[in-house]
Amino acid sequence: MKNKSSRRSFIKNISLATFSALALSGCNSMSFDKFLQKNFKTLSKKDKDKIIKDLEIKYKEKYGKEFHVSDKPAIDGTLFGYALDLSRCVGCRRCVYACVKENNQSRDPQIHYIEVLQMEKEKGVDFAHSTAQYNPEKVPEKGYFYVPIQCQQCKNPPCVKVCPVKATWQEPDGITVIDYNWCIGCRYCMAACPYGARHFNWGEPKVPLEELNTEVHYLGNRPRMKGVVEKCTFCIQRSREGKYPSCVEICPVGARKFGNLLDPNSEIRYILENKRVLILKQELNTQPKFYYFFGI
Amino acid sequence: MKYPFPENIKLPVTLIALCLFVLSGCKNKESEINGINKVNSTIEETKKTEQSTEYAVEPPPFSDGIYPCNDCHANFAPNPVRRNLVQWHDDISAMFNHDSENRWCLDCHDLKNRNFLRLANGDLLDFKESYKLCGQCHGEKYRDWKVGVHGKRTGEWNGKKEYLLCVNCHNPHAPKFKELIPDPPPVKQEDIK
Q1: CB contact under 8 A, A270 and B149
Q2: Are A111 and A232 in the same domain?
Q3: ipTM for the whole complex
Q4: Burial classification of residue B17, based on how many CB atoms lie within 10 Å of its CB (0-12 exposed, 13-18 middle, 19 or more buried)
Q5: Taking CA atoms, what residue in B is nearest to A117?
Q6: Do A295 and B150 touch (CB under 8 A)?
Q7: CA geometry: angle at A286 spanning A282 and A292, to 5°?
């Protein structure tokens, strides 16, 4: 009996203490709302609109720029696929930095969604003998080829499976996204991803003001916070508007191809039907929608 | 069928033609004189492609002041003998690397009308359609280019796409793709503070 009452008073005190701590910490109603915000997937249209409006105000205050935050859902009848021509890629890393700029990745600490691996032609696709640190005067170097790696947008994504809070999921158009507000930063998904495609914000992300991209998507390139995981979303803010991802548009050799796997007349379907195609780490049954091919 | 393409390729190609036609507005008079057949076929193509979605985005990359070629060439008698150019176009002679053992200027440029290219069958070809000339030898690349697999596309994956001509990326006189200076490598793990 004595025990029971002391537990009750403990809980009472704890909740009181929490509440007063919250009140004392001077948080306004907006951050309190944010604290109570539900998982993006369970939000109603009205809730989403309110959250997005609040976000735009918040970004205006923080960065002094007009942001346009979109929550555009998947377009019906689309399943995005990506193809990369290994016989064309010269390893120039233009895609890496176009992606950083488009998606507001932190410059310091540095986050790159795309990692270009240099591999020896004699060894073939062999991760153990590859390097991302190559830095010659000119590329391509003789005897080497280049394999850019980014999120493979798996049909069977291990990262989604392991998330303990369902902060990451696969959208109907095949893009795996993250609700940054719901992510608790446990980094299980990073451990589960066999492609090293997920990246953690160890520090407060730093992006030069003049380079901020203000066209953002809630599930994509909106400014992230410290302590959340992020990754490539096929430029969800662009692809859902019908545009190519920015890595496709920047590639100086035209090695990158993007399109709708459900459209039989798309470039991507032509490649799958007519070219020699491979996927990375096929044996893991992750079923990537990112295909590598030999155009020659 | 008039065009030697499969159905699904007709649309992009005709749109390119449409765009070329629009772009070539100022040269119409010349074309009428020099390439009557060409102009007629372009008009026909134009009609068909009102709702097409693909087009060439950039004009051929001429050096400044070099086109129209006849501005100078009208003053010279055509000389069909293969030789090393020394007085004019010696820069092109010097850098030429496109099966140089077997080929020279007049394999692609027309002898009598320098404002045009010439196909193997003798037909004149506007510079804006140079991909047809390239396609004579590089059939596989041409096929892939038409469906958007070889070369770069920008624009919309489900709508308007923008093409580049072969010569926007490959110098026709030395087509091997030039080496590039790579952007900096990522920060090494041991350098992260």
Answers
A1: yes
A2: yes
A3: 0.86
A4: buried
A5: B185
A6: yes
A7: 50
Residue B7 has pLDDT above 60, yes or no: no
* pLDDT exceeds cutoff 90 at A35: no
CA separation for the pair B157, A266 (Å, rounded) = 8
**Residue B166 near residue B145 (C-beta atoms within 8 A):** yes
CA B19 remoteness from chain centre: 13
Instruction: Give the whole-angstrom CA distance, residue A55 versus residue A59.
Output: 6
Residues B99, B104, B106, CA angle at the centre, nearest 5°? Answer: 135
Shortest Cα distance, chain B CAs vs residue A286, angstroms: 25
Q: How many domains does chain A have?
A: 2
Residues of A in contact with B177 (CB under 8 A): 90, 253
Q: Domain ranges in chain B?
A: 7-173
Question: Per-residue pLDDT tens for A79-121?
Answer: 999 999 999 999 999 999 999 999 999 999 999 999 999 999 9
A66 lies in some domain: no
Nearest to B185 among A134, A137, A295 (CB): A134
- From chain B, the residues in CB contact with A253 under 8 A are 152, 169, 177
pLDDT band at residue B16, thresholds of 50, 70 and 90?
A: low
Specify the range with the lowest mean pLDDT, choosing from B24-38, B69-83, B100-114. B24-38
User: Residues A232, A93: one domain?
Assistant: yes
Give chain A's mean pLDDT.
93
Structural domain of A172: 80-294
